[in-house]
Design brief:
Strand order of the largest sheet: 2-1-3-4-5-6-7
Number of helices: 25
Oligomer: single chain
Strand content: 5-15%
CATH superfamily of the domain at 3-195: Cobalamin-binding domain
Helix content: 40-55%
CATH class of the domain at 3-195: Alpha Beta
Amino acid sequence: MKILLCSVPDGALQSGQTPLIPRMKSNKEHSWSGKDNEFPTFPIGIMRVLAAAQKNGYDGEIYDINNLRHTDEEIINNLNKVKPDIVGLSGPLSHCYPNLKRIIKIIRDNYPKAWIIVGGHISGSSHILLHKTETDLVVVGDGEIAFNKLLDYIKQNPNRLEKKYDELEKIQGLAFFDAKKQIKLTGFGAQIKGTDMEYPSYDKWQKGLHDFGSGGELIHEVFEDADDLRNIFGLNLEKQHYTPELLKIHNELKGKKVGRIQTSKGCVAKCTFCQRATKGYRVFGHSHMEARIIELKEKYNVGVLLVDDENFGSNRKQGYECAELMKKHGIYWSSQGARAKSISVEDLKFYKAHNMLAIRYGIESGSQTILDIMEKKTTTHDVYEQIETCKRIGVATTSEAFMLGFPGESRKTALETAKYNAQLRYLLGNDWNTAYPAWATSIPGTPLYEYSQQAGFIGTTIEEEEDYLYRTADTMEDRGILNYLNKTEYDLKEVHYWLYLYRYAGKKEYVNEIIRKNWKYSKKPIKNILSQVYHKCVKEAFKSYKGDFKKRIKTKINIVKKFGEFTHISAKFAMTLGVIFLPRFILYPILKLMSDVSFYILEKRHKVKGGVQRYNFFVDRRKDKKVISEFEFTKEKLEKTARTIDRSLRTVVTENENIAQVSLTEEAKNLQVLAKQQ
């Protein structure tokens, strides 16, 4: 059997054909290609699945479509090189759906007899895949064991049109149409023990990049250069990162590469917005990790590793072993995902002593109310303590990890988040310029998605759900609020205003923090206050104004548009400076006016009148009377909660199910299991 495993690009169809490798060096500062914020992705999932298949006597090829971003014609040419009997497609995010559907059609049109098997977190939308594409089977949960058993089945039953359903039902971790065209789910995939899991070799990936790409050693293109300071942290650069110690280490690392590695799989938490088909939390075996570290260092000149765990350090013993291995082999490293609740001050000191450069925490909100609704099981105090320790001992970190727009969000909670971020930024020694927040996205397989359907914000028909997947995938990051589907009890204008509060009220709080801290601790408070306001606020405002001017006043636009852009950036600049002096009772109404004007322009440019909306932001089902108030989580209901767990969106979803009391068919029960991937 000829087996081909493919990664799938995320994003809208047009963005799915901008190559990430080979890289197009756009300027001296940015070495990546395609979108400015998108780096090559390591297709760990399909590498693991293929490695497991090889142990079972099978073999195959890896076609990294995600990084190569090929056109339809190029995909067809590469399929013809293999002539596959089985194609496995990895959809690690729901945002892969548009390109997944596109690629499935290409495969089916050219290889009608080939088995098409889809895996990854997109399995939360298995019913859509099975109804709206030519997918044969979906692997739900871990794929190593389930895919091997599927290969055994297909070896004995090669005809995809003559499925033996009684045999397929014995394989744990599959979703498919049964003989009655009803969706059948055989549970979640059986899992390999963590200690038996290996970080796979890059050999097959390397060969695939060569054979299906443009030849040459494209594998080296996936590694970032350690010459760029930001790459060794995996964070956006901030003033806090330019310390003598970190700059000295950076100088040692020049000429080296930055690689990625995982030391665990899964997470100990169940945040209500997080898509997760993998169950539990498993740490990898010590010997496997060391072998891979050595290979990355010797074969690919890696001097820094970004640890891509969702939940690094939750197993303290294993975290320490990992740190010791890094130190032993002279590798510097940064943790890309950690829980503030899982790591102590002593842990941070140990990791720092063993070559840790940076750590990123999942902060999400500065409002304890919203953290409880998210079921983060952490507090703002926990996070503040961790950030303070990082600053004190010299571990790089970031405060820019916030989200707005969760059910239960209000003007009050948005302000709490803005103020909290300002306090963290000042603590870290950064300036007052915040990044834009993320917006809460309802992803299939999460309580947030379930709630969004229960309350009517997302439709429940296959067509409505597919439309939502298309809209959500459309330039997820760079269109900001346009991609946000309003799940709060407030109207769109109010939600839009929260963005202005987050940025400008955050700046106001930053100035207040300067005043508070210096008045309390400084021997020369007035001098220090004036100095810090000038250097961290005023100078940064002028820098931003200059940057906006260069970027937005383009030579090719006409004089009227130039004047409009000039007026816009000048008003923004004046407002920024006004933040320093204006009291809140004057500042906030002005911000609301600015927000409303901006909202009007946004609506005029992007809202479709009398047609299908392209962006989630303008899908206002409340206005269409499709929102079910009985199931909404409102401020009134929130105020009645007595315990923290009562505020969790998971509890809200369960209560709504009890209210509905719907009698479920067998297929509906299977769909409900898919909806509850956590």
